Amino acid sequence: MQKLGKLLNYYQADKLEAGCDEAGRGCYAGPVFAAAVILPKDFYHPLINDSKKLSEQQRAALAPIIKEAAIAWAIGSQTPAQIDEINILKASIKSMHLALDQLKKRPQFIAVDGNRFYAYKKVPHQTIIKGDGLYAHIAAASILAKTARDAYMIELHKKYPQYGWAQNKGYGTAAHRAAIALHGLCDEHRKSFKI
Fold first, then answer.
1. Total domains in the fold of the chain
2. Tens-digit pLDDT string for the chain (195 aa)
3. Does residue 104 belong to any structural domain of this protein?
């Protein structure tokens, strides 16, 4: 493992390695998004970190830098209806598989944030708890998934302004819960979450 800055650049030195992470798993509303990112082995940026440790402005600035530097990157998602049908864990992993499907280069190894993953096309993988704070490619995936999801929720806010999704992004904040109590649930809410 090589460490250029705060984060490690890879789990295995000799393989083309993709990092995977999701965003929006705990939300009450909207899709779950995931990203897969293959970075050059010598990639370094001082701000790259777990997306939750960055401000919205930092994430927005980093996303185009990651896309430009990446060997390959892609995003997948599952709708609230799909989440309700198969459950949030399966939907999160399916979103990662969809992102991996779209990579223009096939990874030889996959490093996944968290502790659960289903094998992808016989490509070896490793789950890493809090991997988005340890590995640059997983952190990059977390940033791309989060910025894509936030942009989607801001657009969705125009259709459902009563829930304040431009601010809360579908998370169960006090304001969002109060809006649900007042207006009820809409099509974009995850009914399986027993809100």
1. 1
2. 444 457 999 998 899 999 999 999 999 999 999 999 999 999 999 999 888 899 999 999 999 999 999 999 999 999 999 999 999 999 999 999 999 999 999 999 999 999 999 999 999 999 999 999 999 999 999 999 999 999 999 999 999 999 999 999 999 999 999 999 999 999 999 999 988
3. yes
- How deeply is 145 buried, as exposed, middle or buried, from its count of CB atoms within 10 A (0-12, 13-18, 19+)? buried
E strand or H helix at 153 = helix 136-159
Q: Which residues does 54 contact at the CB level (< 8 Å), separation at least 6?
A: 47, 62, 143
Structural domain of 41: 17-193
110 lies in a domain?
A: yes
- Taking the C-alpha atoms of residue 34 and residue 117, their distance in angstroms, rounded to an integer, is 13
Distances (CA, A) of 94 to 14, 15, 30, 118, 161: 27, 23, 16, 9, 29
Q: How far apart are CA 81 and CA 100, in angstroms?
A: 22
Q: Name the nearest CA neighbour of 112 among 11, 26, 27.
A: 11
